[in-house]
Design a protein that fits this description.
Helix content: 25-40%
Radius of gyration: 20 Å
InterPro entries: Clan_AA_Asp_peptidase_C, Peptidase_aspartic_dom_sf, Retropepsin-like_bacterial
Protein name: TIGR02281 family clan AA aspartic protease
Largest sheet: 3 strands, antiparallel
Mean pLDDT: 72
Distance between the termini: 60 Å
Strand content: 25-35%
Low-confidence stretches: none
Strand order of the largest sheet: 4-3-7
Number of helices: 4
Shape: extended
Pfam families: gag-asp_proteas
């Protein structure tokens, strides 16, 4: 081979471009610009079956139930707790979704008690359910 260095350099460029494309599809800005693609990717990972009788969500490889959704049109992935009485949103995601922090409260989680804030979620969508 006459130009092995050129071949190695071109291989690195191709790998960089492929990795950059894949990583950009995982970024929050890509999810905001292409929310339907984001939701379809997450639904493909954890299929959701919608029938006349209801919705079936398959568990992931760790046994958790999750799905794609949006809060105030901000796409995010949800872990779904079928026994929960409220919705918990990490502070950073709450800010990005434009939620206002209300009265501070103590919430009970599987990891113990945590400080949290009450809020109102004007728009909540999980899959095709609003």
């Amino acid at each position: 081979m006459k130009h092995p260095i050129l071949l190695v350099a071109l291989s690195f460029v191709a790998l960089y471009l492929l990795a950059d494309n894949l990583l950009s599809r995982q970024s929050p800005s890509y999810a905001l610009e292409h929310p339907n693609d984001f939701i379809q990717q997450l639904l493909y990972k954890n299929p959701v079956e919608i029938t006349e009788k209801g919705i079936t969500i398959s568990a992931d490889r760790r046994g958790h139930y999750s799905g794609a959704g949006m809060i105030n049109n901000y796409p995010m992935e949800f872990m779904i707790d079928t026994g929960a009485t409220s919705v918990a949103v990490p502070g950073k995601l709450a800010q990005q979704a434009g939620l206002k922090f209300g009265m501070p409260v103590i919430s009970q989680t599987a990891a113990g008690n945590v400080k949290s804030h009450q809020t109102i979620i004007p728009s909540l969508q999980i899959g095709t359910i609003t």
